[in-house]
Structures are given as C-alpha cells and as structure tokens.
Amino acid sequence: MDVRAFWSPSVRELVPYVPGEQPRSAGLVKLNTNENPYPPSPRVAGAIAAAAQQGLQLYPDPESGALRGCLAAHHGLESGQVFAGNGSDEVLAHAFFAFFRQSQPLLMPDVSYSFYRVYCQLYGIVAQQVPLDATLQLQVADYAGRAAGGVVIANPNAPTGIALPLAAVEQLLRDHPQCVVLVDEAYVDFGGESAIALVPRYPNLLVVQTLSKSRSLAGLRVGFAAGQRHLIEALERVKNSFNSYPLDRLAVAGAVAAYEDTAWFEQTRQAVMQSRAALVRALRGLGFEVLPSAANFVFATHPAHDAAQLAQELRAQNVLVRHFHGPRIAQYLRISVGTPAQCDALVQALQRLVAVPGAQ
Ligand SMILES: Cc1ncc(COP(=O)(O)O)c(C=O)c1O
C-alpha cells in the first residue's frame, strides 16, 4: 500500500519548512537557530507562575487583550492596530492567507526567510522572487513597476542580516499602494529601524515582530503584527476561522512581563550587539567575509573552505551553526551570536579548521 494514500494531493506536494536542529543532548554550543543566548527577564517566570495559579480551567481571552494593550502602548498605537499570535510564524501565515491570495504575484527577495515560499505553496500563492544585488543587498528600485499582489521582506533580512534603511521601506510602500507590504522585523531590535512608526501613515503597511529573539522567548511562542485597523480586522477574521485561542494564559502573562522589563531588554540586546562586533572581528581575522549584520546572527563565507563541510566539521566539535543549500548562499554559514564564551568556543573550533599551517 502507498503509505501516502490517505494524503490529499496538495499535502503530497508540500515541501515543508525544516527548522534548525534542536539537539536533545546538552553540552553543544548552539548557534544555529538565532535564539537569544540570554534567558528572558526573571519577571517572566514569576508572571507565568502567578498566571498558572488562576483560571487555567477557563479558556484564555480570545483577543489576548492584555497583551495587545501592552504592545500598543509600547509602540504608540491603539489596541485595534495590533494583532497577536502563536509566534510570528503563525502571524505571518495568517497574513499570507489574508492578503496575498491575489491574481498578481507576491514579490519577495530571492534570498530571504524560507518559510515565505512554504506559505505560498500551502495557500496557493504565486510568488515572484526579485534577486538581491550582487552584494546580497535589497534594491527597492528592482520592485518598482512590477505588477504585485503583495510584497514581503524581512528587515533586517534573513539569513543575510542586512538591514534596509527606513527611507527605502517607505519607498516600497509608496511604489506599491495597491497591495499590502509586509515587513517582517523579527531581528529589528539588534540594530534595524522599525517601520511601526509608519503605520498611521500607510494603509498598506503590516509590520510583524516576534518575542522569540530580542525578548528571549522563543520557547513561549508569541508574535504580533502592527497595522491599520482594516488590516488587523482581516487577520482576526482568519484567526477566528482557524483557532480562537492561539495564545494561552501563560504566554500572555509571560509576554507582558517581558515587555514591562525594559531594563532587561536593553541590557541583553546591547550584550548581543557587543558580542556580534567581537565575533565579526574574529571571523574576519580568520579570513571570513562577513556581511554587515543588524541582526543577532552573522552570515559568513570563507574563500578557501566549503561552507557545508565547515558546518559538518563544527558539528563534530560540538558547535552547531546553520547551513542552507539554496542558490547564491550555499557557501555561507549563518552563525547566531552567542554569549562571549559561546562565541569564543566557535572561534577556537574554526581556528582549528581554517588556520593555515605555519601562519601566525
Ligand atoms: C525572518 C524571520 N521571521 C520570523 C521568524 C519566526 O519567529 P517566531 O515564529 O519564533 O516568532 C523567524 C525565526 O527564525 C525569522 O527568522
């Protein structure tokens, strides 16, 4: 019997996203999935413990009102301009369904977050990839004049880490007033410029952010979107046709506590940015070319060493980094910025692998 006989034809054709390895064994230097190397604010555990004492027998607020209010206040918006979901991946998926199932193609960079193509396949959205330039930078002029049913970019981009200035994002919004421009800001707190301030001025702008990176809450699964009310209403319609309660009581309590601890947020993101600067210097010292990163990871290539092989050899030395086989990026490693000790362990392992014998 064909083991796939029960699958619908569309499921047979899916090519799902493959997340980076989440190893079960301890003792690995884990620099492969862009998590924050620091734990969340200590207030998070307290808030979750308190929430666990009250009302778990009841469904949570379907609107996640406490969290939306907190996010709106933090970003200078109204609650009706914020949508919260179970990780930004879920928010992105709802946005793709809500806005991009159009007769015209969805424009996206050829090198970007690979989940975008997976959502397109899942929802039958036609995607058109717009190549980044030779230095892997996004040029908004390359998007102008194309018929578009939507535009999606990550800013800073993943896996390159390169940030697009806000003026360029605004140009994209002005060039495509007839469709939604989705700006995925998963990494913006590590050196990018957020487009959230543009929300009141652009009815076609949807910004998506996550608490997985700069708030150290990848394990809690909380993401959100900011946009004008008509866009948020569309996301609510999709969510309420899929799962009324994407965020549980504990997640809402923990997320609010993380947002309230601004000192912790500042301290940890500054620490990550400092480690990034040191890591870039060390990698360049080993002969790597490193793209300018405004994220909590760097994208690096070595002229004399195959990236896939380096990733494997690092794995053998208990250091995990991410390698993608895609065109144009197969010779790069994506390395998450760890603590100074984790970065040192990576650099030492690389020294053993790439150092030229006899060189100083
Ligand atoms: C560009 C980008 N967007 C969104 C996400 C999803 O984040 P989460 O679902 O944890 O909020 C990631 C995760 O790595 C990412 O790299």
Walk me through what this model shows:
The structure is a single chain. The chain has 360 residues and is α/β, with parallel strands linked by helices. The chain folds into 2 domains: 20-39 and 263-354, Aspartate Aminotransferase, domain 1 (Alpha-Beta Complex); 42-259, Type I PLP-dependent aspartate aminotransferase-like (Major domain) (Aspartate Aminotransferase, domain 2, 3-Layer(aba) Sandwich). It contains 11 helices and 12 strands. The chain has helices at 9-13, 42-52, 65-75, 87-99, 115-123, 166-175, 229-239, 249-260, 262-285, 307-316, 340-354, and strands at residues 29-30, 82-85, 106-109, 127-130, 150-154, 181-184, 205-210, 223-227, 289-290, 297-301, 319-320, 332-336. Helix 6 links the parallel strand 5 and strand 6 (181-184). The longest helix has 24 residues, at 262-285. Bound molecules: pyridoxal-5'-phosphate. Pyridoxal-5'-phosphate binds at residues 34, 87-89, 113, 154, 158, 184, 186, 210, 212, 218, 223.
Strand content: 5-15%
**CATH homologous superfamily identity of the largest domain:** Type I PLP-dependent aspartate aminotransferase-like (Major domain)
What are the bound molecules? pyridoxal-5'-phosphate
* Largest sheet composition: 7 strands, mixed
Write the H/E string, N to C: HEHHEHEHEEHEEEHHHEEHEEH
Strand tally is 12
| Gross morphology | globular
The strand line-up of the biggest sheet is 2-8-7-6-5-3-4
